[in-house]
Amino acid sequence: MPCVRVPRKDGEATRARLAERDLIDDGHEIDVVEDAIFIPVVDPAAVPEEYAVVEHDAPVREGQTMPADVLGFEPSYERLGEVVIVDEDDLDRAREIADAIMASDLPVETVANRASKVKGEQRVREWDVLAGDGTEAVHREYGCEFALDLAEVYFSPRLATERHRVVEQVEPDERAFDMFAGVGPFVVPMAKRGATCVGCDVNPDAIEYLRENARHNDVAERITAIEGDVRDTVPEYTDWADRIVMNLPHSADEFLETAVALASDEAVIHYYDIAHEDDPFGPGERAIREAAGEEYDVTVETRHTVRSYAPHELNVVLDVRITR
C-alpha cells in the first residue's frame, strides 16, 4: 500500500504533519525498517511533494475493526472530519452501512446519506442523518481547517487535490478573487501563502463560515468576504485581480464577462466546466476567448480533467492567462 518513507529521525514530525491533513491510514500500522519509517497514507496524491511515497507492505492494525469487517464487503464512503458521507439510493443499505461505520473503530460522530442532488442558487443538498446528530463538521486539508454545515453550504472533500494544485501556483504578492468562494477552501490557503484575497458567494451561511475560517486559520486580515452576486462587485474591483477562481462548473460561462472585468492587465483564470468527453475543453476555451474579445490575448496554460462527473461527462478545468 502507499506509504510515506522518511528517516527515523524525521518520523514524528512527518507523522504529525500527515495527521494534520487527515492523510494517515488508521487501518495499518506505521512500520519501522532499519533506519526508515513507513507511514501508511489514504491519498498519495495529497501528500506534500517533499515526501517520497513508496509501496510498502504495512501491517494491518490488529484489533482495528473497519466497516468492511462488520459488513462483509467494502462500502463506499467519504470522511469529512468526524462526519462520514455515504451515497446510497437504498435507504436500508445506507442504514446498514451507517451502523457498521459507527460500530467500527473509525473516529466518527455522524453518518449522513445524500438525499438529493445539489440544487438552487446556493448549491445545497438535502441529507438523511443516519447516525449521530447534525451535519456540522470540521474538515482538515493541507494544513487548513474548515468549519462547515453540509446542510447549509456546498463543499466537496473530493476536490482537495485540485484545490491544492491551484493554491500551489499562488505568489505571496498576488491579488486573488474567488467568484464562488463557499466556506473558503481556495481563498484561505491562498491567503496563507501571502496573497490578498476576495471571496464572494450568494449563500450567507457560506460567507459566515468563510469569515470564521479566515479567523481560525489566522488570515482574516488578508481576506475580504462579500455576500451577494459577484456581478455586483465589479465597480469596486474592476482591473483588480491577478488570479480568478471560477468553480461553478454548470454555469461559469454566464459569469465570464464579470471575470474579465475583474482581471488586471495580466491575470490567470481557473475556469471549471462540465463538458462532454468528445470535446471537454473546446466549449470553455471558446467562451473565454469570446468574453476576452480584442482587449486581451488569451493563452491556455493547462487543460486538466478533474474527475469523471457522469456517463460521458467530465469535470474539467482550464488555467487561462489573459494579457491586456
TrEMBL record:
Signal peptide: none
Domain of life: Archaea
InterPro entries in the cross-refs: MeTrfase_TRM5/TYW2 (IPR030382), SAM-dependent_MTases_sf (IPR029063), TRM5-TYW2-like_MTfase (IPR056743), TRM5/TYW2-like_N (IPR056744), Trm5a/b_N (IPR040601)
EC number: 2.1.1.-
Domain (SAM-dependent methyltransferase TRM5/TYW2-type) ranges: 77-324
GO biological process, one term: tRNA N1-guanine methylation
Molecular function (Gene Ontology), one example: tRNA methyltransferase activity
Enzyme class, spelled out: transferase
UniProt keywords, alphabetically: Cytoplasm, Methyltransferase, S-adenosyl-L-methionine, Transferase, tRNA processing
Name of the protein in its database record: tRNA (Guanine37-N1)-methyltransferase
Organism per entry: Halorhabdus tiamatea SARL4B
